[in-house]
Design goal:
- Helix 1 packs across helix 2 (35-48), helix 4 packs parallel to helix 5 and helix 7 (157-167) packs parallel to helix 9 (184-193).
- This protein has 230 residues and is α/β, with parallel strands linked by helices.
- It has 10 helices and 11 strands.
- It is 40% helix and 23% strand.
């Protein structure tokens, strides 16, 4: 039962955004934190006709690497786990290396602060706006809850918050479900939100999430409610 818990809106074009895109394409290393960021960057680069490319690329996970394909990156570094905290700790950087972090409006600057603490010269390119709890998803969520799902799958902290906001006075029904989370950051958000039964997938790939769902619901006779990403 798919329910979008967030919506993504493109930003720009503005002079500041165009400057941020140009900075991303001339940096020592450009760090892309989501597939939406990669797609937004590729669209703006095509619009501006930019031929330059950063010396190095980094991406949070496989999906982001795939979304960078239109930019034809020669080599994309990935962390051992698709988590911002792991990326911040493992990214190979040199002191004063010029990094540009490409992200959305809700991501916050924790990654940038961690990279600065390691000596990098970091700027941010916010290329899209993320809104939690799109009104169009309220009815699909209510319909999904009416079908008594066996569990809920969430893909991000913003997805957790978005689903709860959409649920409104039916939040207790949602929180009573076992929740399957794609990673530790999402699991922390789900725990803070009040989900009583949490299962964390080993990794965010589809097979690992499916295994986690099977662990949470050994014999699923009822449908699974899943937060889907735009």
């Amino acid at each position: 039962l798919p329910v979008p818990a967030i919506e993504i809106t493109a930003l720009g074009p503005t002079a500041d955004l165009d400057d941020a895109v140009r900075a991303a394409m001339t940096a020592d290393r450009t760090v892309v934190t989501s597939p939406a960021g990669a797609r937004s960057l590729a669209r703006h680069v095509a619009r501006l006709g930019i031929e330059a490319r950063p010396r190095h690329w980094a991406a949070i996970g496989r999906g982001t690497v795939a979304a960078l394909a239109p930019l034809r990156p020669a080599d994309v570094w990935r962390p051992s786990e698709p988590e911002a905290r792991v990326l911040a700790a493992e990214l190979p950087i040199e002191v004063s290396e010029r990094l540009v972090v490409v992200r959305g409006s809700l991501a916050g600057d924790r990654l940038e602060r961690a990279l600065r603490a390691r000596g990098a010269d970091v700027t941010t390119a916010v290329l899209y706006e993320t809104r939690e709890a799109p009104a169009a998803s309220r009815s699909p969520l209510a319909s999904a809850l009416d079908r008594s799902p066996a569990a809920v799958v969430v893909a991000s902290p913003s997805g957790v918050r978005g689903l709860l906001a959409l649920a409104g006075d039916r939040a207790p029904d949602l929180l009573a479900l076992p929740v399957v989370c794609i990673g530790p950051t999402t699991a922390d958000a789900a725990a803070r939100a009040g989900f009583a039964t949490l299962v964390q997938a080993r990794s965010p790939d589809a097979a690992s999430v499916a295994d986690a769902v099977a662990s949470a619901v050994p014999s699923p006779a009822r449908p699974i409610l899943a937060e889907v990403r735009p």
